[in-house]
Amino acid sequence: MRIDIVSCQPGLVEGFLSQSIVKNAMEAGKVTIEMHDIRTYGIGNYRQIDDYQYGGGAGMVLMAEPLAKLIRDLQARHTYDEIIYMTPDGETFQQKIANRLSLKNGIMIICGHYKGIDQRIRDMFVTMEISIGDYVLSGGEIAAAVVTDAIVRLIPGVINDETSALTDSFQDNLLAPPVYTRPADFEGHKVPEILLSGNDKLIQEWRLEKSIERTQERRPDLLDK
Ligand code: ADE
């Protein structure tokens, strides 16, 4: 899988890429992730990438020309199943979207900044718009890192235990059950007996029951889906 991230502040994502589970995935050849700086395609000696918005109003807008050039250069070299724009007015990111995207061969993620990008780039190139929640970040970079992380950990072999990602919260619209590790007794707080029983069938039943309980308590909306 290949992910190209287009940004005017690539440093914000580079730190994440060089530290996380994503780094291991890249080193293992499971995914190729490249950052692309819009500034490289900026106009004139000052490499201008943004301008005031037509019609007036505060805030700068990322210009169409540098973005279009960069996107077209990438399209000439690679094939993209989706070109995603990170924006608070996009579709809210969910596990099911991560599942779907993890099956793609190539995706491009465009990060906005300031007031966002010129609408014509959205109209001409973007195939999907994603928000990571109802709040406004200063740019799309952290949102792009969130989406990238959620996708990459689903690629088979990225997490040691292949079944691990499948038992996460939100797979099957259920929250994950509580988990425990050693010691069995921590300051008088004991691990539920059943987890020490070695009876796999009973343990699976217990986990499902706890998952349902936790979902009912915290996210009853998920059970309606
Ligand atoms: N850019 C700014 N805020 C954002 C959000 N909530 N989700 C995705 N991209 C964003």
TrEMBL record:
Organism: Leadbetterella byssophila (strain DSM 17132 / JCM 16389 / KACC 11308 / NBRC 106382 / 4M15)
EC number assigned by the record: 2.1.1.228
UniProt-listed SUPFAM superfamilies: alpha/beta knot (SSF75217)
Binding site for S-adenosyl-L-methionine: 112, 132-137
Protein name according to UniProt: tRNA (guanine-N(1)-)-methyltransferase
Main enzyme class: transferase
Catalysed reaction, written as an equation: guanosine(37) in tRNA + S-adenosyl-L-methionine = N(1)-methylguanosine(37) in tRNA + S-adenosyl-L-homocysteine + H(+)
Pfam families for the chain: tRNA_m1G_MT
Entry's Gene Ontology BP terms: tRNA N1-guanine methylation
